[in-house]
Each structure stands twice: as structure tokens, then as C-alpha cells.
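User: Please fill in residues for this 454-position structure.
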């Protein structure tokens, strides 16, 4: 069992194939371990629409209750709805989802009270150790008085909280196509968007954890083809796609053209800075576009560059008192949402920005999309360290570039930059490149790929 846990306990969450790698007895042990590590008297638990989610979630609740912890089950929810419940109720929380992974997967995203993240360095390693010990020997001793398990619906409160953070009172009528990918967006969007002057065109709102239409991962261009086509057919003002647990959103304009998450980060940053009187720090990871720190400075803010990954973003949000943070992967973090990520709140900002002026979305975001980017390109390699070392050797003697190793290797020049990072879970190197024009970006990208691929 210990060997199996090394495969399913990741840097930030638990994730694996059900029932091959984990099952309800193991979920029960995770619940007991979570109760012990958080030392909580009460927790909140939610789950997505995957066929295995209700059983795993209930087993986790049983495990925690057996240790004397009261459990509030909020049932079907998006991941950011679970974060809302953790923040509003000031309770540790657990969300059962495997996000955009295929149907046979499931997982647990855990947080402490106030949606503070639980990762390897903040409790997840201890949870794994306890589960391994109990799985290999005897189960944990039950509490003298077991906790109570109760149910609570938080959807309306979650929606009202999000709407309170964006001024939507004066937006013009908009036609919006939303692709929920058969994920939790189909559950949350109708309630969050209720009462707004929107003509909503729903796509794949049926909750179906087998994902019959396409993977619920809008960062893969193949998975937004249906949305792009529908936006054009409907003559809509924009399209929005959510991933499986609806904590990430991806936006396309009125022509079906994809808008980069960096442009969305810059747009939302400008709005959040305006809301905070033109002051505040904004977090961005090191592979967002140059446009992000530029826009932040232009709007009076202080950009803070950090590593990729929500634990690093949330740590920097807390350390700097930042008002907002964004990543290239379409995760958006808000101080007013307990520093947690919510794609739904980012989507409301886009609707407010578009509806607050008369022009099309493509024109609105042009000011935030200033450079030519490669997107993320993955290459399978035999030796990640050797390939990274080869790139460093190729560039470190040049006078026209600077190198830094905050996260992988970033090589920067006056007119371009690229970053290469190793995947933590696969034998891959991930390349992101950007330049002031398309021709330069292509040249830089191809030079880097030649070295990466040997």
C-alpha cells in the first residue's frame, strides 16, 4: 500500500485511478488522517460529478467523523465552491475531484480553514505517512464520541459572494456561450449568472463524469473547437469554457479566437487595481507574458514574479498581501476569495469589462495581448537534468542574455525570453517562449527545441 501511495499523493493533492490505485477504504483513512493533521473539530467536504465521487467523499466523511470531527457535506460543487465554504465557514475542507483527468481518475484537494492550501510542505506528507501506517497495520482508534455528519447547500451563498465582488449593475446585454465540458460548470453557472442581462447558450451542461463530448481541459486547443464554432454560429459576444471541477476558465472572443490567460490576468489585474485605489501587489508566475507586469505597473500596482504552482502563488499572496494573482494555466487568485483560485470570478470580471463598454472583446483585450507567444510545448526526454544543463551551457556565455533558475531555467534578452521546466510527474521538459514579434519568437523557440530534443 505504501508503494501505491507514492503514486497517488502528488505535490498538491491526491490523484489516481479508482479502484486500481485507491478506493473507499483508503478514502476513509485519508479522512481520519486529515482530521488528525488539521486538529480540527469540524470540516467541510464536497465532490464533483464523477461516478466514484459520492462514495469516496462519504467514506472520507466517515473516517473524519470516526475521529470525533463534525463533517458538513456540501455535496455536488465546484472546487472554488468548496474553497468558498472553507473560507465562509472557517473550516478545513476536502474536495473530491480529478479536475480534467479522464473518468477513471479521482482525487482529493485539501485545504485548512480559510482555504489555506495543504501541500507536501503544509500537511500532505504527514497525511500520507498516517494513511500508510494505518493501511499497513491497524486502523486508527475511533474517538470516544464520533462526530456528526450533516448536509448544507452553499451554492446560492457562493454565487452571491462572487457577485458581490464585481460591479455588474450597469453591463449591457451580452450573448455568451458557455462550455461546461459535462463538468461542474453546468451546476454552478446557472446560479452564478442568474439575474444578469445575459443570453446564455449552454453547451454540455449535463453532469457526466465520463466526459462524453470532450476532455474537460480547455487549455488543450482540441477541447475548445466546439465552443469556437458555436460562438460564431450564434453570433455571440464571447465564449467561456470551464474545466472539470470548474476552477479554471478559458475565454474566446466574438470570432472564436482564444484569449491567452496572460491577457485575462492583465485585464483582471487592471480592474482589481482600480477597485483597490490603484495600489497593491499582483502575483504572476514566471511564464506569464511580459504584458502582465507591464499592465500592473501602468495601473499603479507592484508585480511580483513567482514559481509556477498554486502553493507558491498562494504563499506569495499571503506574504505580500497581494490583491490578485494569475497563472498561464488559467488559474486566477483573489485576496477577497481567501487568496484561493476561482475561474468563475475571473469570468465575471470579463463579463463586467466587456459589458461596461460598447466594443467587441477582441478589441478590448488587444491592449493586454502585446507579444508573440509559443504556448507551452512539451518534449519527452531521456534525462531532464542533462538537457537543462545543455541549454544552460549554450546560453550562459552570451553577453546579450541573462539566466535565472527560479523555476527551471529562464533565458532572457532585450526582445525575447524562454523558460524550460521539468515535469514533476513525467519525463517531459516544458518550453514557453515569447518575443516582441512572431518571427523572433519562432527563431528562439526552434533554437531551444533543437537543444532540448538533442
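Assistant: Residues filled in for all 454 positions:
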Amino acid at each position: 500500500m505504501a508503494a501505491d501511495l507514492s503514486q497517488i499523493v502528488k505535490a498538491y493533492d491526491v490523484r489516481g485511478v479508482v479502484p486500481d490505485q485507491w478506493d473507499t477504504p483508503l478514502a476513509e483513512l485519508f479522512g481520519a488522517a486529515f482530521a488528525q493533521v488539521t486538529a480540527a473539530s469540524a470540516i467541510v467536504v464536497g465532490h464533483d460529478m464523477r461516478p466514484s465521487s459520492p462514495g469516496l467523499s462519504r467514506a472520507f466523511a466517515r473516517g473524519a467523523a470516526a475521529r470525533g470531527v463534525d463533517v458538513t457535506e456540501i455535496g455536488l460543487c465546484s472546487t472554488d465552491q468548496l474553497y468558498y465554504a472553507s473560507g465562509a465557514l472557517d473550516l478545513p475542507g476536502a474536495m473530491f475531484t480529478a479536475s480534467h483527468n479522464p473518468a477513471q481518475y479521482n482525487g482529493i484537494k485539501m485545504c485548512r480553514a480559510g482555504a489555506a492550501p495543504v501541500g507536501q510542505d503544509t500537511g500532505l506528507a504527514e497525511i500520507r505517512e498516517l494513511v500508510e501506517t494505518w493501511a499497513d497495520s491497524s486502523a486508527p482508534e475511533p474517538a470516544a464520541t464520533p462526530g456528526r455528519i450533516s448536509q448544507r447547500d452553499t451554492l446560492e451563498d457562493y454565487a452571491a459572494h462572487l457577485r458581490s465582488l464585481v460591479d455588474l449593475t450597469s453591463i449591457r446585454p451580452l450573448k455568451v456561450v458557455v462550455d461546461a465540458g459535462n463538468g461542474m460548470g453546468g451546476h454552478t453557472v446557472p446560479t452564478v449568472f442568474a439575474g444578469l442581462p445575459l443570453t446564455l447558450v449552454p453547451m454540455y451542461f449535463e453532469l457526466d463524469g465520463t466526459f462524453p463530448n470532450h476532455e474537460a481541459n480547455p487549455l488543450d486547443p482540441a477541447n475548445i473547437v466546439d465552443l469556437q464554432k458555436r460562438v460564431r454560429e450564434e453570433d455571440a459576444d464571447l465564449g467561456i469554457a470551464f474545466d472539470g471541477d470548474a476552477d479554471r476558465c478559458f475565454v474566446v472572443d466574438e470570432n472564436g479566437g482564444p484569449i491567452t490567460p496572460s491577457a485575462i490576468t492583465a485585464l483582471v489585474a487592471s480592474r482589481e487595481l482600480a477597485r483597490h485605489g490603484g495600489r497593491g501587489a499582483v502575483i504572476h508566475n514566471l511564464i506569464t507574458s511580459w504584458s502582465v507586469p507591464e499592465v500592473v505597473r501602468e495601473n499603479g500596482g507592484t508585480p511580483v514574479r513567482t514559481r509556477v504552482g498554486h502553493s507558491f502563488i498562494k504563499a506569495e499572496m499571503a506574504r505580500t498581501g497581494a490583491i490578485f494573482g494569475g497563472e498561464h494555466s488559467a488559474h486566477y487568485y483573489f485576496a477577497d476569495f481567501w487568496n484561493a483560485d476561482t475561474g468563475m470570478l475571473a469570468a465575471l470580471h470579463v463579463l463586467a469589462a466587456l459589458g461596461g463598454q460598447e466594443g467587441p472583446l477582441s478589441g478590448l483585450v488587444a491592449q493586454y495581448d502585446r507579444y508573440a507567444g509559443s504556448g507551452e510545448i512539451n518534449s519527452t526526454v531521456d534525462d531532464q537534468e542533462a538537457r537543462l544543463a545543455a541549454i544552460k551551457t549554450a546560453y550562459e556565455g552570451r553577453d546579450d542574455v541573462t539566466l535565472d533558475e527560479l523555476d527551471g531555467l529562464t533565458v532572457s534578452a532585450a526582445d525575447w525570453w524562454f523558460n524550460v521546466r521539468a515535469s514533476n510527474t513525467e519525463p517531459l521538459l516544458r518550453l514557453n517562449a515569447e518575443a516582441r514579434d512572431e518571427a523572433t519568437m519562432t527563431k528562439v523557440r526552434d533554437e531551444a527545441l533543437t537543444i532540448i530534443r538533442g
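For context: The chain has three domains: 2-153, 154-370, 372-452.
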